[in-house]
Design goal:
Blueprint (H helix, E strand, L loop, with lengths): L1 H26 L8 E5 L6 H17 L3 E5 L6 H9 L6 E6 L1 H8 L11 E10 L1 E6 L7 H10 L4 E5 L5 H12 L4 E5 L3 H10 L4 E5 H9 L3 E6 L26 E8 L4 H15 L2 H9 L3 E5 L1 H21 L6
Parallel strand pairs: 1-2, 1-3, 6-7, 6-8
Antiparallel strand pairs: 3-10, 4-10, 4-11, 5-8, 5-9
Helix pairs in contact: 2-9, 2-10, 4-11
């Protein structure tokens, strides 16, 4: 009888002990249980910031937690990327970035990260084309004329970009090299001074963001000759792509995406992916995207990861081809 009672008591203790982990797991708070931070690599006012803020506001409503957008500019976006990578891989520090996240390690030896190993793509927000633009007073009325003049002008043409190694610079190098255009590149610190010089005629042409180019079309200070990307932009239906005009090779687009540190739990990534995709369908967010000339894509983790890998290899080929480096 005593042995039976002792055995029953021991089994009861074992059962209670075994139940403790289950109660602990059940009591674990669902993600997110605290504020989520979204880093952006540029100053407030740009297209990345303009999109990140309404997305964060909608996520905050959905999650019942503050979702805080932090502008962390520096080193062409590298500072924000490094900050995100060093954060705990728990989903509470995310990064809203553009194509530069895969271009930077190809341009800067000091980038300090591998975009294919250190970063987890969560969702592609959308894509953006670029607009090959000339001053409104330019005699160049179309792309063929630009190429013909560039080939035949001994003095060459001048073209600008918002920075050495920027997508607009790479497209410019591709256009000049593939079509025998003599030219000189001028790198600017931002679109403001670039556009001023282009409007004034101190530059012959430049690849600009479609949003910037559309604004200048409205005030009739610039003319757009062609668009990069695989198809036309709905806000500029009368402007053909370079591919349509017989100039292939410019089909890649820039994109906006959301990233997390590598090693973030799959369940957390899946929730962020699903919820951000829902937010992108919100009319308010869609309106902001349209004003920024961002075509919403909502590509999930698997598809976006393939885009990151493929585009990384393509940009690497072009950057090496033109020996573009930033130190």
């Amino acid at each position: 009888m005593m042995r039976t009672m002792g055995l029953a008591l021991a089994m009861g203790c074992l059962g209670a002990t075994a139940a403790l982990p289950m109660r602990s797991i059940a009591a674990a708070p669902a993600w997110p249980a605290k504020p989520v931070h979204i880093l952006t690599p540029y100053q407030a006012g740009g297209s990345a910031d303009a999109m990140a803020r309404p997305i964060a506001a909608k996520l905050s409503e959905m999650w019942g937690q503050p979702v805080i957008v932090e502008n962390k500019p520096g080193a062409n976006g590298i500072l924000a990327t490094q900050t995100m990578i060093k954060a705990p891989a728990d989903g509470y520090t995310l990064l809203y970035h553009i194509t530069g996240i895969i271009q930077n390690p190809l341009l800067y030896k000091t980038a300090g990260y591998d975009p294919l190993k250190d970063i987890a793509p969560v969702l592609q927000i959308g894509s953006q084309s670029m607009a090959l633009s000339v001053p409104a007073k330019s005699p160049l009325a179309n792309l063929d004329q630009l190429v013909a003049q560039g080939r035949g002008n001994p003095a060459g043409q001048s073209y600008g970009s918002v920075g050495n190694g920027h997508t607009g610079h790479i497209w410019s190098e591709l256009l000049t090299s593939e079509h025998g255009i003599k030219g000189t590149h001028a790198a600017y610190k931002g679109s403001g001074p670039l556009v001023v010089d282009l409007i004034a005629g101190r530059l012959d042409w430049a690849f600009l963001s479609t949003a910037e180019a559309a604004t200048r079309l409205q005030d009739k200070s610039l003319r757009v000759l062609a668009l990069s990307g695989p198809h036309r932009v709905k806000q500029l239906p009368g402007v053909a792509t370079l591919q349509e005009l017989g100039y292939p090779g410019f089909e890649m687009v820039g994109w906006h995406g959301l990233f997390a540190p590598a090693g973030t739990p799959a369940a957390t990534l899946r929730k962020i992916e699903d919820d951000v995709r829902k937010v992108l369908a919100d009319p308010e967010v869609a309106r902001v995207a349209e004003t920024q000339f961002i075509e919403i894509t909502g590509l999930g983790r698997a598809d976006f990861t393939r885009v990151v890998q493929t585009d990384h290899d393509r940009w690497r080929t072009l950057i090496r081809k033109f020996d573009i480096k930033n130190e």
